[in-house]
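Below is one record:
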Amino acid sequence: MAFFRKKRLFLLLIGIIVLVALIGYSLRDREELSTAEQFINDTVGWAQRAIHTPINYISTIFSNIDDMRNTYSENQLLREKLAEYKSLIYEVQEIKEENEELREIVDKMDSIRDYNPIHATVTARSPERWVEQVTINKGSQAGVKVNMAVITADGMVGKIQSTSQFTSTVQLLTGFDQFNRISATVSREDGNDIFGLIEEYDKESDSLLFKIIEESEQDLEEGELVVSSGMGGVFPAGLVIGKVKEVIPDQYGLTRTALVEPAADLYEIDNVIVVDRILPGEEEEEGEQ
């Protein structure tokens, strides 16, 4: 038994020595590997590829998903920023337009200072009577009275129809009829002025009807300016009403009616001026019918 134990111990020592020798041999720098080493290296390399290829593929997929999420988040943020910038640009444009309108209103008020102009803002517009009247934020407490002219920086828009203490209703030119006439004239440098009445608003032609009541050898021309004459006592003279678009004689050739395009935008009104019908100190004249 002792012999066999010694033999096993001897074989174990021999095996250890051979293993150490093989390890030392394999660790040396060599250009060629043994068949066993090549087999082991190939096997290990194949196993590594078999394991790492799907792992790398899955990692790439998750990486792409993360990139897509990041890209989506960035695009969403950019869209929100773009919407904010567009909104800001729109607000700035609105402010610029409002400031420009207010500057024009101030300039207009300076030019008619003698008529005690009252600046007002449109606060309401009825959907049922959108083209006929608006409500402004000045009333009798501010000196507003019925039949006072209402204008913008561009021209006349209507007259005061009714007042309360703090608000007033404005009848627009688009709501005028034959019972709400305006004495008007086409002024000329040669003194051959043409007088008439703005009788009503014609929806079909989107124009005011200017009926000429005084015969004149001269014809009205397209583009001539029509202003209030002040002869009726309701409106002061010189308020711009509009420009002549076309002149239409009646079928008998006895009277002429001109289509007048309003100078002011009657569909988009924000700031207005209420103009007193007389100069301070003058007696009120009878109103127009």
Summary: Residues 154 and 264 are 5 Å apart (CA to CA). Residues 42-111 form one domain.
